Amino acid sequence: MTSSDLWTAETAARYDEASAAMFAPEVLDPTVDRLAALAGDGPVLELAVGTGRVAVPLAARGLAVSGIELSQPMVDRLHAKSPDLPVVVGDMATATVPGDGSFSLVYLVFNTLGNLRTQAEQVACFRNAARHLAPGGRFLVEIGVPSLRRLPPGQTAVPFDVGEDHLGFDTYDLVGQQGTSHHYTREADGGFRYGVHHYRYVWPEECDLMAQLAGLERESRWGDWHGAPFTGDSESHVSVWRRPAQRWRPAVAERWSALDAVESIVDTGVPSAAASWVVDR
């Protein structure tokens, strides 16, 4: 069972309006441009496709786009915009779509990797993305860099949006690498609605290690969708890893066999034949 928060019909109905800034052309167009350039002729898979903020305009460019999404109400919202866009309802760490192993691009944007709130699930997500890629295909992730440098000693909260109609701040569990986003949104009657979102924050180099475990190689990392350099002051990153064009499956199978062997020792205390093979190697 996934650890992700689940969007209900009520929250899905508000999603596009609450995320209106992310639909603005100055935000969305560079995203779609970059993805279309990386995809080539496609096909393309979006993990956590949501209401289709990115998938629908990308499909309008003529690419064959599929999606995986945990929330049926979010899929219903997407299909109200684009009825023929294929979506599998399921966990992005494990669910598969027809044509796995043939996609030129798999992507995961808008901090959604953090929805998986355990490291194991995030690693599984990278493996699932790699499973869907054709040789030479790319996996792209857009995710924020944790704002821990803004935490004074003894403080656990960092504001990320302060305005007349919305107040948002993150609280952190520094030991468990967990974050909680708190949203206070002004309603039409002048009152405020409270919303909360839970996530696991992840560091750029940790993403690189997850990609390596999935048999992927880092190709690029930018500070934004325009291709700005990623620096120590960047608040987010757009990173691309690539499946090698040759000899990928044996390498990944070998890594997975090694990981399974280690898990066998941890779970049972008894080295399996695979574990002996790993030691001999």
Proportion of helical residues: 25-40%
Shape: globular
What is the overall pLDDT average? 89
Unreliable segments (pLDDT under 50, ≥5 consecutive)? 247-268, 270-281
Strand order in the largest sheet: 3-2-1-4-5-11-10
Largest sheet: 7 strands, mixed
Question: How many β-strands, per DSSP?
Answer: 11
Q: Which structural class do you get from the secondary structure elements?
A: alpha/beta
Radius of gyration: 20 Å
Order of secondary-structure elements: HHHEHEHEEHEEEEEHEEHH
Q: What share of residues are in beta strands?
A: 25-35%
Could you give the distance between the termini? 34 Å
Structure explained in plain terms:
Helix 8 crosses helix 9 (273-280). The longest helix has 21 residues, at 248-268. The protein is of the alpha/beta class. The protein has helices spanning 9-18, 20-23, 25-39, 55-60, 72-81, 119-132, 204-213, 248-268, 273-280, and strands at residues 44-47, 65-69, 87-89, 103-108, 133-144, 157-162, 166-173, 178-186, 192-200, 217-222, 236-242. A hairpin with a 5-residue loop joins strand 8 (178-186) and strand 9 (192-200). The strands form 2 sheets. Strands 3-2-1-4-5-11-10 form a 7-stranded mixed β-sheet. The chain has a 4-stranded antiparallel β-sheet with strand order 6-7-8-9, with no helix packed on it. The model is unreliable at 247-268 and 270-281 (pLDDT under 50). Helix content is 35%, strand content 27%. The protein has 9 helices and 11 strands. The protein starts with 8 loop residues before the first helix and ends with a helix. The protein is globular, with a radius of gyration of 20 Å.
